[in-house]
């Protein structure tokens, strides 16, 4: 199913259903946030269910079967190509601002003339983000335990699981969520606002090795890390941070910068993530506790009792400060562990 949102266009754009122009000064209409299928509001109900594939079953009869097994075909969408579009076969300009014509692959972004399509290789190479993409051919189904039945090809030895907090950065996370679904398999992109990180981590739990990208602030990162601890996945995944909004102290420390607000740079960011080195990160849970004061030392309403109460409060503060100082200053693991208990 398409995920529609209302949008406008600065250049002539055409409906993929009736093929007429989206009329109006700014070409108002609907666009699918995943595959960029365009439609008039009146035409949206008649749009074919050909949004970007997510699993093997969604590919249907278009699947390629040969001596090497099954392979990923191109998924073509007609028309509305960029002004600078060049045919991948003949290298001539393709597309038109006058009508809906020529084709673009939703996965590898290749563009071809209608006449050249049969001359282009049938197998899709998945494009510049192929190392991070889980191809639909690898996702057979979801088993009874809620895990993907997946067989990843060599090109996807370490698939990428993406969590986006759509509310981060004054809701700018929404555009990053859309952009990631356009670049990757929509099945590997999750909105933290809708259900949190648990579902995405469970779906990836049976992968031997995978990477995680959290798009949000320090709170979003901490939320995902806590869920990784609960599911005991820390040995099979590595986590990167794409900072959105303000704060983002962890992203600064790890070298990802204070904030990112340009979703057009995501392909370059994914390439950097593929080459990034890993660092070990220690996480601590620091608990403070209150000393129980025996009844005989309870504070009466006298100046002497008030002094007594102040003494016990100071003793409690000193106890907490001593424990924290041991943890922060000691280089011996045994001392740190005993002080943190």
TrEMBL record:
Domain DAGKc: 155-290
Matches recorded under Pfam families: C1_1 (PF00130), DAGK_cat (PF00781)
Matches recorded under SMART domains: C1 (SM00109), DAGKc (SM00046)
Residues in Phorbol-ester/DAG-type domain copies: 1-51, 73-124
Record InterPro entries: ATP-NAD_kinase_N, C1-like_sf, C1_DGKeta_rpt2, DGK, Diacylglycerol_kinase_cat_dom, NAD/diacylglycerol_kinase_sf, PKC_DAG/PE
Annotated Gene3D superfamilies: 3.30.60.20, Probable inorganic polyphosphate/atp-NAD kinase, domain 1
Record keywords: Metal-binding, Zinc
Domain of life: Eukaryota
Name of the protein: Diacylglycerol kinase (ATP)
Species of origin: Ameca splendens
Taxonomic lineage: Eukaryota, Metazoa, Chordata, Craniata, Vertebrata
């Amino acid at each position: 199913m398409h995920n529609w949102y209302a949008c406008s266009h600065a250049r002539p754009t055409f409906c993929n259903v009736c093929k007429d122009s989206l009329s109006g000064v700014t070409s108002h209409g609907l666009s699918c946030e995943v595959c960029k299928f365009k439609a008039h509001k009146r035409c949206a109900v008649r749009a074919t269910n050909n949004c970007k594939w997510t699993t093997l079953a969604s590919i249907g009869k278009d699947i390629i079967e040969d001596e090497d097994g099954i392979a990923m075909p191109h998924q073509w969408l007609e028309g509305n190509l960029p002004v600078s579009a060049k045919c991948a076969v003949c290298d001539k300009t393709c597309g038109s601002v006058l009508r809906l014509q020529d084709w673009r692959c939703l996965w590898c972004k290749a563009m071809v003339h209608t006449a050249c399509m049969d001359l282009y290789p049938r197998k899709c190479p998945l494009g510049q983000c192929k190392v991070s993409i889980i191809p639909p051919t690898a996702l057979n189904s979801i088993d009874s335990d809620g895990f993907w039945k997946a067989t990843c090809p060599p090109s996807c030895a370490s698939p990428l699981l993406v969590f986006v907090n759509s509310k981060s950065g004054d809701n700018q996370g929404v555009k990053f969520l859309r952009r990631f679904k356009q670049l990757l398999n929509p099945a590997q992109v999750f909105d933290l606002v809708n259900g949190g990180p648990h579902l995405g981590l469970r779906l990836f739990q049976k992968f031997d090795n995978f990477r995680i990208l959290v798009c949000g602030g320090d709170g979003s990162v901490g939320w995902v890390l806590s869920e990784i601890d609960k599911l005991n996945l820390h040995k099979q995944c590595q986590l990167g941070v794409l900072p959105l909004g303000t704060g983002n102290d962890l992203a600064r420390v790890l070298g990802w910068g204070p904030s990112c607000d340009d979703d057009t740079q995501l392909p370059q960011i994914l390439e950097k993530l593929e080459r990034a080195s890993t660092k070990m990160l220690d996480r601590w849970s620091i608990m403070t506790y209150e000393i129980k004061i025996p009844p005989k030392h309870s504070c009466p309403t006298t100046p002497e009792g008030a002094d007594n109460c102040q003494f016990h409060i100071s003793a409690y503060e000193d106890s907490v400060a001593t424990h924290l100082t041991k943890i922060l200053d000691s280089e011996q693991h045994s001392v740190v562990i005993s002080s943190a208990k």
